[in-house]
Amino acid sequence: MSLTLRTISREQHLAYIRSLPSASHCQVPAWADVKGEWRSENLGWFDRDGELVGAGLVLYRQLPKVKRYLAYLPEGPVIDWFSPSLEDWLRPMLAHLKQQGAFSVKMGPPVVIRRWDAPAIKGGIQDPDVKRLRDVQATHIEPHAFEVADRLRRMGWQQGEDGGAGFGDVQPRYVFQVPLEGRSLEDVHRGFNQLWRRNIKKADKAGVEVVQGGLQDLDDWQRLYEITAERDKFRPRPRSYFERMWKVLNAEDPNRMRLYFAEHEGERIAAATMLIVGGHVWYSYGASANHKREVRPSNAMQWRMLQDAYALGASVYDLRGISDSLDESDHLFGLIQFKVGTGGEAAEYLGEWDFPLNKLLHKALDIYMSRR
Question: At a CB cut-off of 8 Å and minimum separation 6, what does 158 contact?
């Protein structure tokens, strides 16, 4: 296979993404503007006929005090990962990134290894001997994914223990998704567990209304998001981050990002952001007040977002990251417990992989990140 790689324009990159059924929101050109603290580059792979057959958004972060960069392709690049000649795709990329001053490359192949359906996960939760999702027998295994992993190892790529734990912008290895393709909305609703269906009904009976918001509503979003951050003990992103996200993503595509609010008696008590790339729709950030939780605004909002994703013709509604812990005493257990109620499935991706172009600087970065 004869492939050449070169820098492409954002317009070429976007046109290529639009030609696909879907791609990660972290690989659209505008994502570079969301991550404004990184330098960026759009890469294109061309076949021998000069046709664009792959693309990648690279984010470069400079190492403190040295003019060398970490090159990061979040949930990318968008190439033929199952190609028997994967080396022909990745070798020119490594050579190019080295020329650009990269000392290390991090990428996240958008390749699913295993899937677990809701009954399998529930069985794992009920089994006292099972503590991790990986200990539960998968309902679907993608054999070719293991071949991809083997090829990467043979090329010298290294996989982090936890898909890149300790790296600030790491993407989740385990996610929860509700498949929509080939299903009716009634079928999706039937797939919810009893508690979810009851909570959706309860919200409706209590008069919870779900509405779409816009840029002018970001103050309401930020208020609920900061309440959530304090309650769940994480450091919140500033309002400016979401404003930038809204402006740059929707400038690229007017329907790339949406904002939803659940309202009760005129008060906004829950909110969520939604991202759309082709047939893939993501619930990306969520927030809720500490009070009125009994009217179940989050269930109502998720159901509305699922319905809207379906109306858009989405093939999958992605609830994003989960931990693989099935231990009820783990503080992250609530995430999978909430999401499994949708009747969807957990998916495990290949995780993030590193290629040290300069082993000494790569090691220095590891030490620096572990101390932060």
Answer: 353, 354, 355, 356
What is the distance between the alpha carbons of residues 96 and 86, in angstroms, rounded to a whole number? 16
The answer to whether 132 and 324 are in contact (CB under 8 A) is yes
The chain-wide mean pLDDT, for the chain, equals 94
Tokens of 350: 């290949």
pLDDT digits (tens, 9 = 90+) for 110-150: 999 999 999 999 999 999 999 999 999 999 999 999 999 99
| Angle 349-190-313 from CA coordinates, rounded to 5° | 60
Q: Report how far residue 47's alpha carbon sits from residue 55's, in angstroms, rounded to the nearest whole number.
A: 12
Q: Check the CA dihedral 230-234-238-239 and report its sign.
A: negative
Rounded to whole angstroms, the Cα distance separating 164 from 145 reads 18
The domains located in the chain, with CATH, are: 1-108+352-372 (3.40.630.30), 182-314 (3.40.630.30)
